[in-house]
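B., you asked whether I could sanity-check this one before it goes into the benchmark set. Here's the sequence:
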Amino acid sequence: MPTVNKAAVAAVVGPADAAQAVGEHLADLLCGYAPSHHAARAQGLPTIGVSHGTVFGCISEHGVPMAGFDHEFTTGALFGAEAQAFMLGHIHRHQSWVADGAAGQRCIAYPGSIGRFHYGEEGDRGFLVWEIGPDGAHCTLEPTPARRTLDIVFEGKPDLDVLRSVVEQQEVGGAFVRVRWVVADEDRHEVDRAAILRLLAGAAEAKLEGRIVPVARSRAQGISRMASLDDKVRAWAAATGVNPTPLLACLAKSIAAPPQDIVEQALRFDEASAESDVDDGRSEDRLVVHPVGAEECNHSH
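And here's what the prediction gave me:
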């Protein structure tokens, strides 16, 4: 069965109905093959269907179910042809469907692809060996050499300790490894790409994909046209849902106090904070980092 030109169908039934019409016409055509297949089987001859297309509900090589009204086939329509075997191409993941009936065991199958060409592909790779007779058919996947791919996904910043453990358990030597993570915009500089690449030094390829989540900032409309700082603080507080009273009080003190007094007060506050840190030992805690190497320590600080 050659591939149907959907544009030709759309010219007859209209673009909106073209996809569904293709499936319906193919189902009618497949059903029309059944009598000749019955006659062939009565003579001891197996029958085979070959085509290229998508079966409703099949799974893509990335694990996505192919559900929709724009796919050419259903398993019911293919089995309706009463052929012992239906060999399909298009989907790069091996999968099969089997049905038993008066025509014997019938089988529909995708061989998938013989290689693994993209990250995230699931399932084995190989070709199919078919055994077909007038009373039934079945197929066996024969694996082919294919490159190994490994996906390591972090919901936040990459954890180097976790990554090191995965590298040891998964034996990434010679594999194609992709590391993905999601971080906020202000934390993007904390991802040590060099350290990740060092851990994946034995991989055939290391691909790093970071997704940056932008920071959503609230803006107060017209704040730049307000004359006083008090009005600007009130507008900002209204936009962010903050109580403006303590902010206005702090602003008033800052405006009334001489600059030298503000500097001296800030210095006294820093000295008091430093003494408190020495007393409770928090000065040491500031220097404690995860043992991931001197390079990352320097980068983190």
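One thing to flag: The beta strands are 48-52, 85-89, 95-101, 104-110, 126-133, 136-143, 149-153, 176-184, 205-213. Otherwise nothing jumped out at me.
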